[in-house]
Amino acid sequence: MNLESSQDVILTLENITKVYSGTVAVKQATFEVRKGAVNVLVGENGAGKSTLMKIIAGVEQPTQGRILFDGKEVSFSSANDAVSRGIGMVFQELNLFGNLSVAENIFATREITNRLGKIDHREQERKAARLLERLETGIRPDLLVEDLRIGQQQLVEIAKAVSLEARILIMDEPT
Known about the structure:
With about 180 residues, the protein is α+β, with helices and mostly antiparallel strands.
């Protein structure tokens, strides 16, 4: 029985290179991401790990190389493009609104509205509570993000990415 079927491959990077003003940040990186697998990029500071993750997440575009998603060549023109195809990223720098609640942060880019088009805060809190419980965070959705410890804020970032139903979740230096 072959457990490593090519059908399990979600993402393939082939000879990805990124050059900034003559400086090579990533040189011919090649690897695959399989369904259900955990992949880890390890390297020294400045080795290009964050750049490579940003390329996968559509934040940066490669100078050379190919990206295949579900076996088809793709070019992510933006982070939104990558998100729409099922790739989420938790960046090293947190991207949260301290003066908003956990639930409001989770749904900040796609607010849940009622039939009248008004934000349905109760439904956002309910969905956020379910998600936070599923992730076993112990965080209440009504808390202000600025009142959370940094580790809890990172869990909120992860919950945001998971709420997008990402097939691939990229985490840059999760601590």
